[in-house]
């Protein structure tokens, strides 16, 4: 059987970063920057006040004290957005608001709390050191300074600085658009009545959520039955709009395996058994002229989710222009014995926690069948048991993939 590592390596060798496109900032959340971004101006662009108060010459208020306030005339108000040239002459002050440009001649701001708040003349009770409450031009970014480098994932703060340096659009790898298709004649939509032999369709909800968490845009398409022609038609219709396709179900050894049947003639899609548990049956290939990656994952709900974590998530990272690596693991102590089939790498569902002394522990959940979705929902980690290990005692050290 093919190993987990070989399967991932094959997928990552086939998948390419999506071409960068110019994205409006409103549409760029989660995209990966494909250019270095510099600021055309210094930030802040001008010296300005950090507080509401009075712009002064520090020397004029040097003697101010609670028992000996300095009283000075107020010439004018300077608000944020004020574009008029302003100047503070010796012995005078202006009122100033947070974010307003510092008038020429002023070299300190006295917060309103240190004064009587006067508007015609003001009594100042405390000396302000030179430069007090002044935000200097360029103290965040120098003109021409680099603010983000290619490869940065655009989150709220990154979008903020892009706007902050005046950018409206940005060159970035977009989030991959991933279509999720489930197959199986037994599947009915949640929210509708269940007949005998039917189950509520759940995989597409898991997959869509997992894609979104992994930085993709996910589209759930109606679950299709067990008809290969219908499946192929649905798939063909999607290829123009998808950067990747995930299917679940229909790939094992059964008599009604529409995915396998429909896709087999299309060429370079390989259906294989991977030495893992759960998730043994896997398929991967590139579809159509654009070479759209398709992941045909096993139908069992735990199997498809584990497959997503191991294969689809790293592939999506590569498509996003990010480093693609196997899932990160942490080392933990198992609090119960573990069992695993010989020759297959197991991904047991567990609860990762912290012992009293601070060491990581993991407890396997009850219900390790690949159909046991409730047990998966109660887990927060996958316990990795290597291919050559069939059993581990309580207290053994294991690698764990946090979910
Ligand atoms: N003779 C053999 N039978 C099976 C083998 C095998 O090697 N030889 N492998 C087993 C393993 S392991 C797995 S995993 C499954 C994979 O089968 P398929 O990918 O073809 O999936 P289905 O048969 O369509 O479904 C399996 C199971 O999962 C349920 N399912 C499917 N889709 C959904 C969905 N969208 N939401 C909720 N549940 C879903 C489905 O009802 C089945 O119970 O094959 C084993 N058999
Ligand atoms: O390999 Mo299957 O995924 O065990 O249920």
TrEMBL record:
Pathway in which the depicted protein is active: Cofactor biosynthesis; molybdopterin biosynthesis
The MoaB/Mog domain covers 179-318
The cofactors named for this UniProt entry are: Mg(2+)
Could you confirm whether the keyword Magnesium appears in this record?
A: yes
The first-level EC class reads transferase
Which Pfam family, any one of them, does this sequence belong to?
Answer: MoeA_C
InterPro entries from the UniProt entry: MoaB/Mog-like_dom_sf, MoaB/Mog_dom, MoeA-like, MoeA_C_domain_IV, MoeA_C_domain_IV_sf, MoeA_linker/N, MoeA_linker/N_sf
Gene3D superfamilies assigned: MoaB/Mog-like domain, MoeA, C-terminal, domain IV, Molybdopterin biosynthesis moea protein, domain 2, Molybdopterin biosynthesis moea protein, domain 3
Q: What is its EC number?
A: 2.10.1.1
UniProt similarity note: Belongs to the MoeA family.
The protein's job, in short, is: Catalyzes the insertion of molybdate into adenylated molybdopterin with the concomitant release of AMP.
- NCBIfam families noted in UniProt: Glp_gephyrin (NF045515), molyb_syn (TIGR00177)
Q: What is this protein called in UniProt?
A: Molybdopterin molybdenumtransferase
């Amino acid at each position: 059987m093919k190993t987990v590592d070989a399967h991932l390596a094959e997928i990552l060798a086939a998948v390419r970063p999506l071409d960068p496109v110019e994205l409006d900032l409103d549409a760029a959340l989660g995209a990966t920057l494909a250019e270095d971004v510099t600021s055309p101006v210094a930030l802040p662009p001008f010296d300005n006040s950090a507080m509401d108060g009075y712009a002064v010459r520090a020397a004029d208020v040097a003697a101010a004290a609670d028992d000996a306030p300095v009283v000075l005339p107020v010439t004018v108000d300077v608000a944020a957005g004020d574009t008029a040239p302003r100047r503070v002459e010796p012995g005078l002050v202006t009122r100033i608001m947070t974010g307003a440009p510092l008038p020429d001649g002023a070299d300190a701001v006295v917060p309103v709390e240190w004064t009587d708040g006067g508007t015609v003349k003001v009594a100042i009770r405390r000396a302000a050191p030179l430069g007090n409450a002044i935000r200097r031009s360029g103290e965040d970014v120098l003109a021409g300074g680099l603010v983000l480098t290619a490869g940065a994932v655009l989150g709220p703060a990154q979008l903020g600085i892009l706007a902050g340096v005046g950018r409206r659009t940005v060159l970035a790898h977009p989030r991959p658009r991933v279509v999720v298709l489930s197959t199986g004649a037994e599947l009915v939509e949640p929210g509708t009545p269940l007949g005998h032999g039917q189950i509520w369709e759940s995989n597409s909800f898991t997959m869509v959520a997992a894609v979104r968490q992994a930085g993709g845009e996910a589209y759930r398409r109606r679950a299709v039955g067990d008809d290969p022609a219908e499946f192929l038609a649905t798939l063909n219709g999607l290829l123009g709009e998808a950067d990747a396709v995930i299917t679940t179900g229909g790939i094992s050894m059964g008599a009604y395996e529409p995915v396998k049947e429909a896709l087999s003639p299309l060429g370079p899609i390989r259906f294989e058994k991977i030495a893992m548990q759960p998730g043994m049956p896997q398929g991967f290939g590139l579809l159509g002229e654009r070479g759209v990656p398709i992941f045909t994952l096993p139908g069992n709900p735990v199997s498809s989710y584990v497959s997503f974590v191991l294969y689809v998530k790293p592939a999506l990272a590569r498509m996003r222009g990010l480093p693609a690596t196997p899932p990160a693991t942490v080392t933990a102590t198992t609090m119960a014995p573990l069992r695993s089939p010989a020759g297959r790498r197991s991904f047991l569902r567990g609860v990762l926690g912290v012992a009293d002394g601070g060491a990581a522990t993991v407890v396997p959940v009850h219900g390790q069948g690949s159909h046991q979705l409730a047990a998966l929902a109660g887990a927060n980690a996958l316990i990795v048991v290597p291919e050559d290990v069939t059993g581990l005692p309580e207290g053994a050290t294991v690698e764990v993939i946090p979910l």
